[in-house]
């Protein structure tokens, strides 16, 4: 039972604050970057045009314009108390039609004290004066320096805000903490923990000529980690090194036997040598394979426990041995990797004299993440900083704030912060970020008069991007070898026996060759099949061994020999059409996801740009196919499709978006909900492509679903009561309470609202009172099918022969649960 108070924190992020009857001590903290000029800064603001929604039965949502907000101050804590109460005389809400006066326009002055209409109170806290601004449109607490801007950190550098609301004799409340960071002790870290590679950027201030100047340099994460680990070998020796970038490749190895470790108590892998971040090429041998597992992409696979159980581990504690799987260790492995990145950065950024540092840590998250997965990411990072504050960086870290942001939203902000594209008012933009593991997309609309006032119309994504294409090359090579073999049965038996057990060094070598062939294929015109096959058969020779015969006996049938032969070949042909199918899957998924949303965008608001980011688009056939579908299927001009001219910017641009100022982001909500209709089809669908996983036939029909979640109103009206299933990101959900399936119980169509604890469906009476509500529970109907494209995206760290189509010969029968689900979709 709670009320949800919508706030804007520091003019930069949305926060839906839960006001509950029981006071919670786990309060959120925010880092307020104090201005360099004597301008006002906003602690928080409340838009009075919004509703304070409720999950209290027999209560109603409250228009914030109809509430009185009274403020008191306790200097001893220090704490501002904001008390919300029902006004005896409702305020007349005045819509703000002049968006040019909005704070987001940097050409306009910051809020000043003369703007107040109804209420103004001022409170002193050390060097800062806080003032209450209460007018017809909004309520805000602003602060400014009393006198000059101090050159040193201020002494009283934090303030609490306690919010309370009374209704029918009950009090609902919560509290937020605000830390006031002087320029000399403020640091902003931005992390992109990528499927293929990770990158990091730091923003802080340097004191030059008696002035603080902001710097936002990219940091070579590889060199930071290498320096922190005390390694001196040449960069080129490490498999995690990527030439001409600031990235560190996301290749990690976890020891199979962990000593002094308890999976239920320990948050991190204790022993430094048991989780390898940096591995030299000469270490890729049987010793590494026998003693370590190469970690699958935890960013993708963390919620699929079954596909993590193929890795067997042991924990050894006081002579007791416990058998574990990666599913048991995923949080500790993920936490230890992130902690290493953060600690390496702190080691570089903070010196011996640093103390009382304030850190804002922003991390990119894929749009396939659920609310709970976003919350878990934040919890992991909070635990890391808590551990560092208590141990290695005691007295150096005073406070921190963790922020998450959608990868595709960050790409949008990066485009305009780098000046790669001009942003226009009253337009919408489509952003597609195709990386190595996931494809994320957003549709963002700009304000009618202020281009910097933005709102997300749609946000979603799926697992399947550049690595899915790499896997398609792998499938195509196997297809050719089997077709070309003198003994197909022996060759197939070799692959079935060897692929899952191959040494990590051999599989990584195979993957590198695939990436090389992929690059060649992307840059060349399509090659003749017969010519490529003749060239491969002629080149792939080592004595009497070749691709047609190497699997015929036990001495030559090795992955090492396969690599030796493949290193000699040049050129590529898409045998079996696997590459074409992978590009079809990715581009169709993007376009079909957007069709319904684009069709229903308000008339008169035109698309001004289709912005592409992510290194997946370095593969030319994928790029060209998406351009073709965007113009043919969605009717867009090809002139709208834009990409950074420099390849390095395709990935780095998302990180640039983290540091863009003047925009409000929604850090907790990533994927938007889509309701799945249940209107019957006359006949079951047929697969779109022979080798396309069945799940994509389900996705290709989502264009018939009309996404109507309004982020600005936090509302999704459910008009179709025959189905209460929702696709959010890559997960299907069902309303938990079966009462919502009883139409007699519902007086009006229910709605779906976002809270920090997840989405809730509400039964609202005709008198606008809440008669009941229910959370959503995960539905497993599509989970088994999503693995058909998720597991290929984990290649080469995980290979499962059950998902190698080229070894099956025939398309596997469709999943019965999925066909049943598809049959419910409209034509």
Structural notes for this entry:
With 827 residues, the protein is an alpha+beta fold. Helices cover 26% and strands 29% of the residues. The protein is built from 18 helices and 40 strands. Strands 1, 2, 4, 5, 6, 9, 10 and 11 form an 8-stranded antiparallel beta sheet that branches. Strands 14, 15, 16, 17, 18, 25 and 26 form a 7-stranded mixed beta sheet that branches. It has a 7-stranded antiparallel beta sheet with strand order 34-36-37-40-39-38-35, with no helix packed on it. Helix 7 crosses helix 15 and helix 8 packs across helix 17. It is globular and about 90 Å long.
Task: Describe this protein with a few key phrases.
single chain; 827 residues; alpha+beta; 8-stranded antiparallel sheet; 26% helix
Helical stretch tally: 18
Strand content: 25-35%
Helix/strand/pairing class, anyone?
alpha+beta
Supply Rg: 28 Å
Q: How many E-type strands? A: 40
> pLDDT below 50 for ≥5 consecutive residues: which ranges?
89-118, 679-690, 692-707, 810-815
Note the gap between the termini: 40 Å
- Large-scale geometry: globular
Question: Would you tell me the overall average pLDDT?
Answer: 85
**How much helix is in the residues?**
25-40%
Largest sheet: 8 strands, antiparallel
């Amino acid at each position: 039972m709670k009320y949800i108070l919508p706030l804007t924190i520091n003019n930069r992020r949305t926060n839906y604050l839960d006001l509950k009857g029981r006071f919670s001590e786990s309060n959120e903290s925010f880092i307020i970057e104090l201005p360099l000029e004597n301008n006002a800064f906003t602690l928080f603001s409340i838009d009075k045009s919004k509703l304070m929604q409720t999950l209290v039965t027999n209560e109603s949502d409250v228009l914030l314009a109809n509430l009185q907000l009274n403020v008191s101050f306790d200097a001893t804590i220090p704490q501002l108390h904001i008390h919300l109460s029902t006004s005896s005389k409702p305020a007349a809400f005045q819509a703000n039609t002049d968006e040019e006066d909005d704070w987001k326009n940097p050409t306009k002055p910051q809020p000043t004290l003369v703007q107040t209409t109804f209420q103004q109170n001022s409170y002193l806290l050390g060097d800062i004066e806080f003032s209450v601004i209460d007018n017809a449109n909004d309520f805000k607490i602003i602060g400014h320096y009393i006198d000059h801007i101090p050159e040193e950190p201020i002494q009283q550098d934090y303030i609490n805000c306690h919010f309370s609301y009374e209704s029918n004799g009950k009090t609902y409340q919560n509290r937020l903490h605000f830390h006031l960071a002087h320029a000399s002790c403020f640091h902003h870290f931005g992390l992109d923990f990528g499927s293929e590679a990770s990158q990091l950027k730091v923003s802080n201030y340097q004191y030059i000529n008696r002035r603080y100047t902001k710097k936002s340099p990219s940091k070579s994460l590889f060199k930071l980690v290498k320096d922190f680990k005390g390694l001196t070998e040449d960069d080129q020796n490490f498999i995690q090194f990527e030439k001409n970038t600031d990235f560190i490749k996301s290749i990690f190895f976890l020891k199979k036997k962990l000593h002094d470790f308890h999976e239920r108590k320990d948050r991190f892998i204790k022993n430094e040598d048991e989780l390898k971040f940096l591995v030299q090429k000469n270490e890729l041998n049987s010793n590494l394979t026998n003693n370590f597992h190469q970690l699958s992409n935890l960013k993708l696979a963390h919620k699929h426990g079954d596909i993590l159980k193929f890795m067997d581990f042991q924990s050894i504690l006081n002579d007791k041995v416990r058998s574990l799987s990666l599913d048991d260790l995923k949080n500790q492995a993920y936490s230890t990797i992130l902690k290493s990145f953060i600690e390496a950065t702190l080691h570089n950024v903070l010196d011996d004299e640093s103390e009382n540092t304030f850190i804002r840590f922003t991390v990119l998250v894929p749009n396939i993440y659920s609310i709970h997965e976003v919350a878990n990411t934040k919890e992991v990072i909070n635990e890391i900083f808590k551990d560092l504050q208590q141990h290695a960086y005691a007295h150096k870290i005073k406070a921190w704030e963790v922020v998450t942001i959608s990868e595709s939203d960050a790409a949008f902000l990066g485009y305009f912060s780098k000046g790669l594209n001009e942003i226009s008012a009253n337009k919408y933009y489509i952003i597609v970020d195709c990386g190595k593991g996931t494809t994320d997309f957003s549709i963002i609309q700009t304000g009618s008069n202020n281009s910097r006032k933005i709102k997300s119309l749609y946000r979603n994504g799926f697992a399947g991007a550049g690595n899915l294409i790499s896997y398609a090359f792998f499938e195509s090579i196997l297809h050719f070898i089997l077709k070309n073999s003198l003994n197909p049965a022996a060759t197939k038996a070799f692959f079935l026996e060897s692929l899952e057990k191959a040494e990590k060094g051999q599989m990584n070598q195979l993957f590198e060759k695939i990436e090389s062939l992929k690059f060649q294929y992307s840059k060349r015109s399509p090659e003749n099949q017969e010519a490529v096959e003749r060239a491969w058969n002629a080149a792939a020779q080592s004595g009497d061994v070749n691709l047609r015969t190497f699997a015929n006996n036990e001495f030559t049938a090795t992955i090492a020999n396969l690599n030796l032969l493949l290193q000699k070949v040049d050129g590529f042909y898409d045998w079996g059409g696997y590459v074409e199918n992978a590009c079809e899957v990715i581009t169709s998924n993007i376009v079909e996801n957007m069709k319904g949303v684009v069709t229903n965008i308000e008339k008169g608001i035109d698309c001004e740009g289709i912005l592409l980011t992510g290194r997946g688009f370095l593969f030319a056939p994928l790029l060209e196919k998406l351009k073709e579908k965007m113009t043919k299927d969605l009717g867009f001009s090809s002139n709208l499709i834009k990409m950074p001219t420099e390849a390095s910017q395709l990935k780095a641009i998302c990180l640039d978006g983290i540091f863009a100022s003047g925009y409000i982001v929604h850090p907790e909500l990533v994927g938007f909900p889509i309701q799945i209709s249940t209107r019957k089809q006359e006949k079951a669908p047929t697969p779109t492509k022979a080798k396309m996983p069945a799940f994509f036939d389900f996705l290709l029909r989502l264009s018939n679903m009309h996404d109507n979640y309004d982020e600005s109103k936090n509302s999704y009206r459910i008009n179709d009561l025959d189905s209460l299933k929702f696709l959010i990101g890559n997960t299907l959900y069902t309303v938990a309470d079966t009462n919502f399936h009883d139409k007699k119980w519902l007086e009006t169509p229910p709605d779906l609202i976002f809270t920090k604890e997840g989405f809730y469906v509400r039964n609202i009476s005709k008198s606008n009172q809440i008669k009941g509500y229910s959370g959503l529970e995960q539905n497993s109907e599509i989970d088994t099918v999503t693995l058909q494209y998720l597991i290929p995206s984990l290649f080469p760290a995980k290979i499962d022969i059950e998902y190698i189509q080229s070894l099956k010969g025939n398309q596997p029968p469709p999943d019965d649960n999925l066909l049943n689900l598809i049959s419910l979709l409209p034509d």
